[in-house]
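Entry:
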Amino acid sequence: MPVLRSDHKQAVSLREALVGRSLETVVYRQTEHGGLTGVPDGLCHEVDLDVVLRLSTGGVGLTWDRDDLVEGISVSAADQMSSTKGVINVDVGQTPHWRPLLGQPIRSVSLGWQTSEEGCPESLWSVRLDVGTGGSVVIALGELDGDARPSYFPDGLLVIFAESIARSYSHLGTDGTAWADDALAR
């Protein structure tokens, strides 16, 4: 189930699971057939299934999710990544964009909200992590279009390393951008 804005407890739990913890490595869980099985490059990465953050205290998985018409990002503990047929774990921690963030404590978490369909509750569509070095990364619903630009697609995730790209990425169901300025930050 996607994280809902009305579920303050879940939003606070996400922040508490991340803030102050050091990022040790990151794994993208990709489908074998999706064509995203290699280590990505560029300022935006597409992820078929999950972004798993390995922290000093365990793992947190961010996944695109749907509950009927409510689309958004769900969050789960990801201490054990079991092998699943048809799924590849791609270790991206040593890529040029993730490497500077490793070993750094997460100092704040900002959450971006959307309404996926009229009459649906607001759900989480983007998460921005700011780390001790001043670096940031955004994880949002979406995919890259044919010109490698972020495009809203609720059945995938984008990892965005450039603030300018995250600030320019939005869609009709949001009242802000993927940068998530209306932060639940600490």
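The mean pLDDT is 90.
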